[in-house]
Structure formats: structure tokens, C-alpha cells
Amino acid sequence: MLLIPKIRESISKHMAKVKTILFAEDDQLLLTLYRKHLQQAGYHVIPAQDGLEAMRHLSMFVPDVVVLDLLMPRFNGEEVLQYVCGNARLACMPLIILSSSSVVDTGNQHLLARADRRLLKHKCTPAILVENIQELFASQYEEMPAQPANPYDTSPSSDARTAAR
């Protein structure tokens, strides 16, 4: 009987560490290919096959990153970007555009500037996408503010460490 709570706790801790990716792509073959590779890399992938489905997901939760195609039915990627830009809850959410060159080059540059990365489908592989996602997460970690000094640390080396920085 005591084993079940420990298993639940272990699963909860594991799930808290797993990063969630909302992947908005209307091409089922690409969605399946990228989803498989992202899951193998340890990510939880939530698919959205059009812009409306992506916005529904975004209205319910904030993923760790969004991968967004710009050419989709039922609200295109630019409309999803407008939704993201107009929602304070989604303001800090990392976003990667994965689309064709014609759309990335000719789209609304103000909206497209919201993306942390812009990748061209014909040049991107699943490995490149995974690498970009890992770099985004690493940069988020590096940008975290430094922890304030421990006011209860009375060791003489604590002041020396602070002065050396």
C-alpha cells in the first residue's frame, strides 16, 4: 500500500520536469515526423492541426515552447501570433516559427519579430529543431536572475566571492 503513493510522487516529479511543446502544423506527415523525434528527445508534444486548435490549447495552458507553421487552415499562424501578442499570460512563452521561406519573408514582420527563432521547412530537420529547442531552454536558464546572497551566510568567504564577481 505504501508503494502506490511513492510511485505517484515519482511520476509527478518526472512529469514536472518534462517540457511541453505545442506543435501547430497542418501537414500530418510533418507533424508525425517531428512529433516522433521530439518525443524521443524527451519532450511531451501536443499537436494542433490548425490555428484554431492551437489557440484553444493556448487558452487552456501555457506550453514550454510553441512550434508554429504560418500557413494553416482555420486561423493561420499570423492570427495565432496576434492572439499570443494580445495575451499577457503568453508574453514570455518561447515561440519558434517553422514555415516556408515565402511566408517568413513576406509576412507581417512586426508579428514575426515575436518569434524567438524562425526556421525554414526546406532547411530544417527534426534534429535541427530539437537543437534549437534545447538552445532556447538553455538560454532561458542562463537569463534567470542570480539568486540573492544568503543573508544568513556569515562565512568570511561569502563577501570575498561577491567582491570577486
Structural descriptors:
single chain; 165 residues; alpha/beta; Rossmann fold; five-stranded parallel sheet; 8 helices; 5 strands; globular
How many helices in DSSP terms?
Answer: 8
Order of helices and strands: HEHEHEHEHHEHH
Proportion of helical residues:
40-55%
Q: What is the class in the CATH system?
A: Alpha Beta
CATH architecture: 3-Layer(aba) Sandwich
Strand content: 5-15%
Mean pLDDT: 79
Protein model, in words:
The structure is a single chain. The chain has 165 residues and is of the alpha/beta class. Helix content is 50%, strand content 14%. The chain is built from 8 helices and 5 strands. The protein has helices at 3-17, 28-40, 51-60, 77-85, 101-106, 109-112, 126-142, 156-164, and strands at residues 20-24, 44-48, 65-68, 95-99, 117-120. It has a 5-stranded parallel sheet with strand order 2-1-3-4-5. The N and C termini lie far apart (51 Å). Residues 144-151 and 157-165 have low confidence and may be disordered.
How would you summarize the topology of this molecule?
Layout lengths: L2 H15 L2 E5 L3 H13 L3 E5 L2 H10 L4 E4 L8 H9 L9 E5 L1 H6 L2 H4 L4 E4 L5 H17 L13 H9 L1
Parallel strand pairs: 1-2, 1-3, 3-4, 4-5
Helix pairs in contact: 2-7, 3-4
Summary, kept brief:
By secondary structure, this protein is of the alpha/beta class. The protein is 50% helix and 14% strand.
